[in-house]
Amino acid sequence: MDVRVEELGPTRRKIHVTVPVNAVKKEIEGIYFELKKSAKVKGFRPGRIPREILERYYGDYVREQVVSRIINNTYSGALSEGNIEPVSEPTLDNDALAEGESFTYSAVVDISPEIELTDYEGISVKGRELKIEEGEIEERLEQIQNSHARLEMIKEERAVQEGDFVIIDFQGTMDGKPFEGGKGENVSIEIGGGRFLPDLEKGLIGARSEEERKVDVTFPEGQGEKKLAGKKAVFDVRIREIREKILPPLDDEFAKDVGQESLKALKDKIREDLETQKRLEINRELEEQILDRLIESNPFDVPESMVERRVDSLIRELKINLAYRGVEFGQSNLDEGTLREQSRDRAVKEVKSDLILHKIGEAEKIDVTDDEVGRRFEEIAKRTNQTPTHVEAYYRKKELVEGLKAQMRNEKTLELLVGKAEISHEDKK
Q1: Residue 21, CA distances (Å) to 70, 132, 320 in order
Q2: Torsion angle (degrees, nearest 10) of CA 303, 309, 315, 320
Q3: Which domain holds residue 351?
Q4: Is residue 291 located within the same domain as residue 329?
Q5: Which DSSP helix (H) or strand (E) runs through 186?
Q6: Distance between terminal CA atoms of the chain?
Q7: Pairing of strands 165-174, 232-246
Q8: How many CA atoms lie within 13 A of 361 on its CB side?
Q9: In the predicted model, is pLDDT for residue 428 greater than 60?
Q10: Is there a single domain that holds both residue 87 and residue 167?
């Protein structure tokens, strides 16, 4: 077998493979030998059909099978001989197969770029000091208080006001006709909560229990139903009940209800959680700065196939997140073509970051142990309410373990770079 590699660009190669006559002949004879035992031709008994008859009836089939077998049997060897490690599926092309002649085919593949790393230690970055303001603790405490509030019927007759919860029946119409999804009964809405139609929430302020009123609504452009975005409707609304939110007092008893010994212990726990959250945010900012510096100081082209795969991944993640929120992508106000274009810069940055971190990881001999992978399975299991065994089985079945290890190696490499960075602190409010 003769192999020649042609350079089509910094990250693309074309491999030309010529398979000798004797190898082609062997494959052709092998296919006809198998075919002779199973082929059926009128007037001939199985196993007794002459070769020239088989060629007449099955010639195209045999040529197709031989080409497929030759490529399958020689492609890996051709990559090895050409010292090529592809990062994409090959685009194949071949000459016509002719008995008594050698066979030639080619494969175009993308390869990882050559990266000549500049000094990656001691990168200068700016970081925030870890500070927790008392106002932040109070804000989080109020959020917890609100999440444990009770809804009670208003004690005195009054109109709907901001912050109330109202139970309503409604029927929406467009041009005087009801539309799909425009009707509801016993629906609870928080006035000013922003989780329903803003115009409808505002239009109910001042209404009283059992009152019926018409409210003009314009559906927001970001409306989940694409066909309703920007359209105008009229809602006939009946107020069934008005409820107000009763907040529990912030005292030691409240703290015990949410799992802490005292109000002071609850505030200490909030401070600890905020510190953990901010530490992660600050570290992520440092990581982003380091990656930006590395990409800027180590310019290289990335294979288009890797960028496209990363765009595919980003779009897939978006669709999954929408599904978790109960929104089908097809019913959203999103265009996949536009999203792909908007995701491209991010995809290029992520691919470049991964390649650089992989290169540094190799230089620093960073590895991921089986115990570390096991602990990561436990973390994933905890987040997803599954057992570590179930998570591991899923990753192995889907052949995702090596990808997880690569991700973890990059994380360890980035952690190393942050540890070696020169960080100047500045307050960022």
Answers
A1: 12, 77, 52
A2: -150
A3: 261-425
A4: yes
A5: strand 177-190
A6: 66
A7: antiparallel
A8: 20
A9: no
A10: no
Whether residue 286 sits in one domain with residue 167: no
Query: Is residue 34 in some structural domain?
Result: yes
272 and 397 co-located in one domain = yes
Chosen domain end from 58, 81, 110: 110
Tens of pLDDT, residue by residue over 107-166, are 999 999 999 888 899 999 999 999 999 999 999 999 999 999 999 999 888 999 999 999
Q: Which residue has the tokens 């912050």?
A: 163
CATH number of the domain that residue 214 is part of: 3.10.50.40
Task: Write the CB contacts of 12 (distance below 8 Å, at least 6 apart in sequence).
Answer: 108, 109, 110, 111, 303
Do 318 and 133 contact (CB within 8 A), yes or no?
Answer: no
Q: What is the pLDDT of residue 62?
A: 92
- Determine the Cα–Cα distance for residues 167 and 404; give it in Å rounded to an integer: 48
Q: In sequence order, which residues have a C-beta less than 8 Å from that of residue 388 and are 6 or more positions away?
A: 374, 377, 378, 381
Number of other residues whose CB lies within 10 A of the CB of residue 267: 18
Same domain, 215 and 239: yes
Please compute the mean of the pLDDT values over residues 296-310 and round it to a whole number: 93
Is the predicted pLDDT of residue 429 greater than 70, yes or no? no
Q: Could you tell me if residue 125 is inside a domain?
A: no
Give the 3-state secondary structure of residue 276: helix
In this structure, which amino acid lies at residue 197?
Answer: L
User: Confidence band (pLDDT; 50, 70, 90) for 427?
Assistant: low
Number of folded domains in the chain? 3
C-alpha 200/C-alpha 235 separation (Å) is: 8
What is the CATH number for 399? Answer: 1.10.3120.10
Q: Give the Cα separation of 36 and 5 in Å (integer).
A: 38
Residue 117 belongs to a domain: no
pLDDT at 225: 65
Asked if residue 71 lies in contact with residue 91, where contact means CB atoms within 8 angstroms, the answer is no
| CATH code, domain carrying 14 | 3.30.70.1050
Last residue of a domain, one of 55, 80, 110: 110
Tens digit of pLDDT for each residue in 280-295?
Answer: 999 999 999 999 999 9
